[in-house]
Batch of 4 targets.
Target 1
Amino acid sequence: MQKREYQFYVYILASRSRDLYIGMTNNLRVRVFQHREMKPGAYTAQYNIHRLVYFERFQYVRNAIAREKELKNWTRDKKIALIEKINPTWEDFAADW
C-alpha cells in the first residue's frame, strides 16, 4: 500500500487595514476561498480579512498546530515583522487563484 503524503499550512490573512487572522489547514486554496465567501458572523467576514499575506508548509500536522499556537501568542509587532520579512508590500499571494 502506497503511503500518502500530506501537507499542512499555517497561514496569515490580512485586511487592507492590516487586521490579522492566523489559521491552519491541509488545503490552503480551499480554506482561502472559504474565508472569501464572507459568511455572516465569521471573524474574517466581520473585519473583511481575506488577503493571504503569509504561509508556511508542514509535513506533519502536529508541527503545524504547534506553529499556529506559537504565532497566535506572538505580539502584533512580531507578526507584522514576520510578514514583512517575506512579503514587504503585503501582496495577496492568492490574488490570482
Target 2
Amino acid sequence: MSTGHPELVATIASEIATSGPIPFARFMELALYHPQFGYYMRSTPPAHERIGWRGDFYTSSDVHPILGQALAAQAEQMYRLLGQPSSFTIVEMGPGKGLLAKHILETCAHRYRSFFQHLRYVLIDRSPAMREMQRRNLAPWLDRAALLTWAEDLPTVAPHGLTGLLLSNELVDSFPVHRVQVTAEGIKELWVDYRDGQFLECLKPLSSDALAVHLDRLSPEWPEGYRTEINLRALDWMKQVAQHLDRGFALTIDYGHTAQDLYRSDRKGGTFLCYSQQSVNEDPFLRVGDQDMTAHVDFSCLATTGEEQGLQTTGFTNQMSFLMGLGVEQMIAKLEQDSPEFNAAIHLLRPNGMGTTFKVLIQHKGLARPELDGLQYKPFFGSALATQSAA
C-alpha cells in the first residue's frame, strides 16, 4: 500500500480508477492542495510544524528577520519612486507562516513611519491552516483598521489594478509541475497510475497543447533519457500578476535558475525534490500528503511572460547581492560577532548556499527605468534571462 495520508491516497486512487492515469502535475496538485487532505491545506499538531527549523523545510524568514528588514527598505524606496501615493499596497502571495510580513511591518513601523501610515498589507493564501498560523504571528497588527487583510486570489484584491508591490518568497517552486522525459519517440510526459495499492509512473503523450507549445519555445536539444520539469502554472500566475498591477513592482524570490542553466543538457535528472523533517528524497509516492514537493524556478520564462503581459524587467540578481545592495553589511555589523543571531544572518548570504541559490526577479509597470538599491549588484549578464535553453 502506498504510504501517506490515508484519505488523500484513497482520493487520488479513486480519481485514477475513474478516469485512468493522471498527469504528474495533477497528482502534485492533489498531494499539496487537496481542499481537505492536501499537505498545505490541513492543520497539523503543534509538535509537527511544516515550515521552520523543526519542520519539513525552512525559509529565509525562519532563518533571520534581516530579509524582511531589507524588503521593507526596498518597498519604502519603491513608494518614493511612485511619488508617495496616498495608498501603497504590498500583496504577499503565499505568505507561509506570516513571518516575512511580520518582519516587514515591524521595520516599517519603526524606521519608515511616514511610509507606514500609507501602507496596506494583503496576504493571499487559500489554506485555512496557514491563515490561522499567519494570524497568530501577526496578532499585534490585527487591531489596526485596514492595515492587514486576507484574500484567496489577486482578482479579489485588485479587480481594477493596484499601486504598490506584489511580493512572493518561495511560492513559485511549490506550484504543481509537469514532468517530461526524452524518449526515442520524442518528448513524453510523466503520468501517474495506481495498481495493486501502489502509485506508479508511466510515460504517455503530452497532456496539453500548452505544454507542447512551451516545449517548442524552449527549443531543447536534450539527450535521450533526459528528464525535467515544466511549470505552466507559474506562467499563468505571472500573467495574473501583470494584469492586476497598475503601477508599481513585482518582486519574486525563489530558488531557481535562468533557462540556460536550468535546462542544461547535463542536468539530466531535473530538479524535482521532496522534503520531510529536513531530509530530502526524490520519491513523490513516499508519504503522499505528508511531505513537501518542489522544483526549481525558470526565471527566464517568468521574465519573458511578464514582458509579454506589459511588465518591464527591472533587474535580476541573487539574494546575497540583493541584500548587500540594501545595506545588509551595516545591519550585520550591529550584531554581536559569532552570536547565534549573527551566524543566522550570515546563513542568508552564503555564496554556496542561500545567498546564491535564491534569486530575485524584479519587474515594474508605470515607471520609466527605476533604479533600485536592491539591484546595485548584478552578478548576471544582460542576456542571462534569455529563454533559449543551453545545449
Target 3
Amino acid sequence: MTNIKLKYVDRFTDRHGSVRYYFRRGRGARFPLPGLPGSSEFMEAYQSAVDGIEPPKVKKQRGEPGTIDRLVSEYFQSPEFLRLKEATQGQYRSVIEKWVRDENVGHRSVAGLRREHVKSMMGKRAGKPGAAAYFLQTAHVLMKYAIDNGWRSDDPTVGVKRFKLGEYHTWADSEIEAFEAKWPIGSTERLAFSLLLYTGQRRSDVIRMSWRDIDNGVIQVTQQKTGNKVWIPLHANLADILDRTEKKHLAILTTVKEKTFSPGGFSMWMAKRVAAAGLPEKCVSHGIRKAAARRLAEAGCSAHEIASITGHKSLSEVERYTRAVDQKRLAVAAVKRLTEHE
C-alpha cells in the first residue's frame, strides 16, 4: 500500500520512526491523512481533500502503534474497562498510569515486555506488598487485553509470585478509648470513627453515607465493593452522636469545606487524626472495621450475624474472629476447671 503514489500527498518520517502522510495542494493548508495509502480511511480522507472538503481532524492518539502508551489508551476506552465499577476504574487508571510514569515504559513495545521485566518491577515494590500485588493485578489485566486483541500471544505476568501480604491490625479496646479520649463527641473525627466502628463498613461506604439513608433507627448501605445491600440498626452511641450532628450537607461526613471525602483523602485525613491521638501507624481505618467484627464476636454473635452487619460475602474471615473468641472462652473455662479440680 505504501507504494501507491497520489497527487498532493506528502510524507515524512517523525522522530519515532513512523511515516506520516499529509494532503497539500499548491501552497494551501496541509491536512493530515489517517492510516496508510490505499486503506479505506486514508482514501476517504484523500478524496474529500481533492473535492475541496476539509477532512475531519485526525484525533491525536496517545503513543505509537504497538507501544504500551497506545495499549493503555485503547484499554481505557474498551468495553472491558468501561464495564468496571467507577471506583475500580479510578483505581486501575491510577495504578496503571503510575506504573507507566515511574517505569518510563510508555514508549516501549508491548510485545517486548518479558517476564524478567515484570519480576524486576515487582522487586522495586518489595517494600509495599499491597502496591506490588495491585501492580501485578493491573498488569495482568492489560496483558490479557493485549492478547485478546492480537498485540501479543503470551502473558508475561503469569507465574510471577506475589509478596506475602500482612494483615491489617485490629484495633484494641485501649486504642479505641485513646482515640475517643482525644476526639470528643461533636467533632468530625469522632463522627467518622463512630460510623466506622458501629456500622463495620469500609471507608468507601462510610464516606458515601447520607442522611437520607437513615430511617426509623436503621441505616441502609449499598456496599460499593460488593454491591451488597445491608440494613444496620443504629447502635445507641452512634444514634446519640448523629443526633448531635448538624445536618449541613446531604452526606453525613464532610470536609472542613463541606465537601465529600474521596477514599484516599479520607485515609490520609484519618491517619493524621490517629497520629494526633498518639496511636501507632498500624492503626488504620480498615482496622476499625476489623475491631467492629471482633467486638460483635466477643458479644457472642455468630459468624452469620456478624456478616449480616459487615456484609462479608465469604465467612472465612468472619469465622476467624469467632474462633479466636471461642478459643479464649474455652481456655478460661479449662483453667477454671483445672483450678477447681486441684
Target 4
Amino acid sequence: MRLTHYCLSLLAGGLLLFGRPVLAQQKPLPPRRTNVPTDSIRLSDPFILADQRTHTYYMTGTGGLLWQSKDLKRWDGPTQVAQPDPTSWMGPNPQIWAAEIHAYKGKYYYFATFTNRALKIDADKGGTLERRAVHVLVSDQPAGPYRPMRDETYLPANKSTLDGTFWVENKQPYLLYCHEWIQNQDGTVEKIALKPDLSGTTGPGQVLFRASASPWSRENPRTAPARPNKVTDGPWVFRTKTGKLGMLWTSWIYDVYTQGVAYSASGTLAGPWTQEPTPITPPNYGHGMLFRTFEGKDLLVLHSHLDVKGDYHRVPHFFEADLSGDKLVIGKPYHP
C-alpha cells in the first residue's frame, strides 16, 4: 500500500501517522546483537556521530536506541540511552523521534523529539494534538546514559515541535527545529538561541522558511490542483568548503518522501534561504545528515522510505557527498 503523510495505516501492531511510526504502546527493548550489517537494521531518521575520542561511530534515530560500530560495516546494539525525567511533561513512557548526538565542550548532548500522548495541546485549526516537543539531554559519554539538565521546557508548551538539531554560529549555540504542519498548516524550520551550556533556550524563536517556499515539494488534494506541500522534516545545517551555508530538509512530492536542500544568501542562519529547484537524492529517501568518516570521507546517511510488496520498513543508507564547491553534490550509494 502506498503511504503518504495523510494516511493512517496499520504498521507492526501500531499506526503510521503522517509518515512516522506511532505505536499504541512502547515496544520492549530488542535483544542486543553483535556484528549486525547496516541493511539489517530497521531505523528511521538515522544520525551518526563519528566520535574522535573513542574512534567509534554511534548511530541513533527514532526510537531512542543506540548502535555502535568501528567501521560502518557491522554494528553492535541496540541499547537504550535516553533517560528523561518521568515526572516531567514527557511522562514515564514518551515516544522518542529523530534523536541526534552532538559533542560540545567536553560533553555529549542528545537532541530528540519527545511525545506524551496523555497530554493534549490546542491545534490552530481547532481540536487537540498530543504534546510533542524537542528537548535536550546530556551525558559525559557518547554511549550515555543521557539525562535532563535544568530547564524542563525548551520550546513553548502549546507549540508542536520536532526534529531538533544543533548549530553554532559566532560562538552562539542554536537549536533548530520544525514547527509541525498539523498545527500551523504550513510547516516551518525555525531557530532559537541556546544557553551557553545548552541547558535551555533564550529569547523567541525565528522562522527561517516555510514548507510552501519549496519549488519541488507538492501535494495534490482530490478537490484541487497540485500545490506546495505542508511538511517540513529533519533539518540539518552544513557548510561547504567554500563557506556556503546550506540546510538539508525533507518533504513530499505527492506520496514520495523526498530530500531537498536550501542555501543561505547571507551565509548565516538568518538567511534569507533560497530553495534549490530539484531534490538532491533519489525518490523515497529522506531525513538525511552529513558526517565525515575517520578516513576523511564525507557521507550522507538517510533512511529509505518505501513499501516493497507490503513490507514497509525503514533502513539506513549511505551516499557519497561532495562538499568541495559552493553546493553539496550527492554521489553514488556508498557501501563500507
